[in-house]
Amino acid sequence: MDKLTSIVVEDNSLALEMLVNDINTHFKEVEIIGSAKSVIEAAKLLQNQQPDILFLDIMLGDGTGFDLLEIFPNLVSKIIFITASDAYAIRAFKFAAIDYILKPYSIKDLENSFTKAKQQITPQNEQLTILKQAVTAPSERLKKLSLHTQEKIIVVDIKNIIRCKSDNNYTTFYFKDGSKILVSKTLKFYADILKENDFIRVHQSHLINKYQIKEFIKSDGGYLVLKNNTNIPVSKRKKAEVLDILKSF
């Protein structure tokens, strides 16, 4: 079987050496054909050959991994992003729906990343734009979200999401135009990343955009009526929180 070729871009010398050694030791099907510690060094390598897999650190001494991708907009390599265990970075990758490995990583993490790289297509430009915005301006509220369906990746405007509904390990997104999208991630996953965008988990099965609330009905245990006239139940433990939010409008 032909070996997969790889280039590693990491600005920390010790981390670079460790990753190269781990790949050489544990993944004989992968051949490292080059390594770099900066955008300039990596650009010189990629001018001559594009590997099957590019390990790319986000923050480099002379720029970012995004600078490198802008130099090579038609890069055909599968990208495995590397990032430190930072809350903002993790949030960024979740919004963009792009896989990554966290430093410090395990051999199992590397194994999983190679498996995904063999299966995945290169991230879309819109996904990379979301990721770049979230990493370079972490305090800004993100306006777009990437949704992974079984068939494709869809980038949506967060303001157009009315609500999300849980279906075991799946989540259905409902939009202002009446469309809906089913994704294979839990409601908790989206509740965690969308809470900064004014989404409220009002029930075990329901996450709503608070700006889509029309009224709260106190009868029948309490439920919300949204602007599209959908009725959403409110759990007992969430009722006080929902009422406080309504008072703040």
Structural notes for this entry:
The chain has 249 residues and is α/β, with parallel strands linked by helices. The protein has 2 domains: 4-136, Response regulator (Rossmann fold, 3-Layer(aba) Sandwich); 157-247, OB fold (Dihydrolipoamide Acetyltransferase, E2P), CATH 2.40.50. It is built from 8 helices and 17 strands. The strands form 5 sheets. It has a 5-stranded parallel β-sheet with strand order 2-1-3-6-7, sandwiched between helices. The longest helix is centred in the N-terminal third of the chain and has 14 residues, at 13-26. 31% of the residues are buried.
| Helix and strand run | EHEHEEEHEHEHHEEEEEHEEEEEH
**Parts with pLDDT < 50 across at least 5 consecutive residues:** none
Count of helical stretches: 8
Oligomer: single chain
**The CATH architecture of the largest domain:** 3-Layer(aba) Sandwich
- Alpha-carbon distance between the two ends: 62 Å
Strand portion, in percent? 25-35%
Mean pLDDT, as a whole number? 91
Fraction in helix? 25-40%
Judged by helices, strands and strand pairing, the structural class is alpha/beta
Give the number of domains.
Answer: 2
CATH superfamily of the largest domain: Response regulator
Q: What's the overall geometry? A: elongated
Q: What is the tally of beta strands?
A: 17
Key words describing this protein structure:
Rossmann fold; five-stranded parallel sheet; alpha/beta; OB fold (Dihydrolipoamide Acetyltransferase, E2P); 2 domains; 249 residues
Short description:
This protein is α/β, with parallel strands linked by helices and 249 residues long.
